[in-house]
Amino acid sequence: MKTIKNQSGITLVALVVTIIVLMILASISIGAIFSEKGIIQQAKDTKKQHEDVVKKEEENLNDLLGEYRNSMNGSGESGPSGGDVTTPTPTPTPEEPKGPNGKPLPGAITEIVNDTTLIEDKNGNPIVLPGGFKGAVDSGNTVEEGIVVEDIEGNQFVWIPVSNINHDGSNKIKKNDGTEVEITLGRYTFDTTTGAAIVSQYAENYETPEIINTYYRELTTSRIGSSTTYNTTAKNLQEFIESVRDNHGFFLGRYEASFASGTKYGVRR
User: Fold this and answer.
1) What is the 8-class DSSP label of residue 147?
2) 21 to each of 12, 107, 112, how far by Cα in Å?
3) What is the DSSP string of 167-222?
4) What is the C-alpha to C-alpha distance for residues 135 and 251, in angstroms, rounded to an integer?
5) For the chain, what is the largest distance between any 2 Cα atoms, rounded to a whole number of angstroms?
6) How far is Cα 221 from Cα 236, in angstroms, rounded to an integer?
7) To 10 degrees, the CA torsion angle through 145, 160, 202, 242?
8) What span, in angstroms and rounded, lies between the C-alpha atoms of 64 and 45?
9) pTM, rounded to two decimals
10) In this structure, are residues 107 and 96 in contact, taking their beta carbons and an 8 Å threshold?
11) Mean pLDDT, rounded, of the chain
12) How confident is the model at residue 10 (pLDDT cuts 50, 70, 90)?
């Protein structure tokens, strides 16, 4: 008599049950992945949210940058969101101050000029600045205030305006209040009672041959006085008169800061 041994194996029923379970798990997994709220859709939503946040941060950063640029440029306006900020037009450099006729004012000449330069005061009165000079720091900008120039050694001179040579009322000097005054070149004395200036010789009289000997004359050399000192002498008077006529004035020494052999002038003033 044969003995039949028990053999282990999967039955048909168990196989069917297993397949059904696997199908249920697969449907659940597919739903979790591809459904409206599945993993893939959530990943897409998360990516979009991240991109929106990054874009918003970039816009905010551009706005802050625009406000910073405008504040640095003195403007309170910010540029468009996310766009470039328009650079404001730079403020032009102020032009050199000039007189009414377009010539530089004395106070604007802060560097030594190489050549003789025609300048003017605020009222339009002409001034001839010699080469080698500049406007002094304390110079005024009108002849009434006092036009002062100086050279590289600090020697200073004051401009003396002269309206004309012939005392005929022409080419008068304009004052700060708008009025005009005539300053005639000549030799003056003062009335001891009133203090008024009285012309004792006009410059034009020096140029009149028939009366030249009646007035003060130019000497070619200094003349000895009663002692060993020298008397005051008019030298190169004709040249001086012509210079004043051409330049409408002359410079008178204010003070000189230098005195030594080999200096520009060679004498103390």
Assistant:
1) -
2) 14, 104, 106
3) -SS-SPEEPTTS-EE--B-EEEEE-TTT--EEEEEEHHHHT-GGGGGGS----SS-
4) 13
5) 185
6) 10
7) -150
8) 29
9) 0.55
10) no
11) 76
12) low
